[in-house]
Amino acid sequence: MDYFTVGVVVFPGSNCDRDVSWALEGCLDIRTKYLWHESSDLSDVDAIVLPGGFSYGDYLRCGAIARFSPLINALDDFVKSGRRVLGICNGFQILTEAGFLPGALTSNKNLNFICDDVELDIVSSKGGWFNDGGKKQTIKLPIAHGEGRYHCDSDTLKKLVDNELIALRYKKNPNGSSFDIAGITNEKGNVLGLMPHPERACDEAIGGTDGLFTLKSLILK
Amino acid sequence: MDQFAVKVFVRLRPSVLDPAGEATKSASIKLGAEGIKSLRIGKMIEVKIEGNGENEVREKIDLLCDRLFANTVIEDYEYSLEKL
């Protein structure tokens, strides 16, 4: 493998796959490859992004059907190998449904589909997804979701807090998420799920560059 | 092989806020319905399924409920089963 390649997974109903690819290739010069959800061969990618959208029309629950795709079945070994997986919005929902991350995402408290920029506190630098040399503790990223209310039981929340697995918290909770949670990692730190869209904040021309660091960190070992 | 009609009910756990239920409760009150103390929305899934007896079918339905029909982090389920 000559170039570090990020696999961008495409489900029927994904709609942020091209945005992610554009941000990685156009803004960061990182090579990408689209991975159709029926593929289970992950041998030629070094990291994976599960993009936003409405996989399988969000039928039953967000991410519930996507979880059974051959690609998600193959993801277990990929994650165990220590390679990095980033789930954005619907990708985060899929990661919780598939059990890679704890908790669940359900309908926003106010039932609105919220499309807005939000301020986020970087809580943990686990996995190095947001660690910008300690310079910036608050970032601004866009959100666009109807079902982004993170929910978990109190034992899980304690575990998230104790093990520093909460990556991002909303400064002003938009959707009723438990503990203002906007993003979490697994214990190893190589899997991050978040509701905000870093790929939509990669160029000043579209309102900010606070998402660049997270996408760039896909190449970390 | 026996055939069964199964009705699965999936509900948000009592501890999980149900905004759609709250909105529907609010609309119900606007309609003039009195005395509504609580209103929560769930899903009902109808399955026709074959198997060697009720126990085998229950095993299959339990698996479906646990792994697919419900997300047990936020939802509970129950089902009724009728031999056809």
TrEMBL record, chain B:
Pathway info = Purine metabolism; IMP biosynthesis via de novo pathway; 5-amino-1-(5-phospho-D-ribosyl)imidazole from N(2)-formyl-N(1)-(5-phospho-D-ribosyl)glycinamide: step 1/2
Give the catalysed reaction(s), semicolon-separated. N(2)-formyl-N(1)-(5-phospho-beta-D-ribosyl)glycinamide + L-glutamine + ATP + H2O = 2-formamido-N(1)-(5-O-phospho-beta-D-ribosyl)acetamidine + L-glutamate + ADP + phosphate + H(+)
This entry carries the following GO cellular component terms, namely: cytoplasm
- Annotated coiled-coil positions are none
Assigned protein family:
Belongs to the PurS family.
- Quaternary structure, from the entry: Part of the FGAM synthase complex composed of 1 PurL, 1 PurQ and 2 PurS subunits.
* The name this protein goes by in its record: Phosphoribosylformylglycinamidine synthase subunit PurS
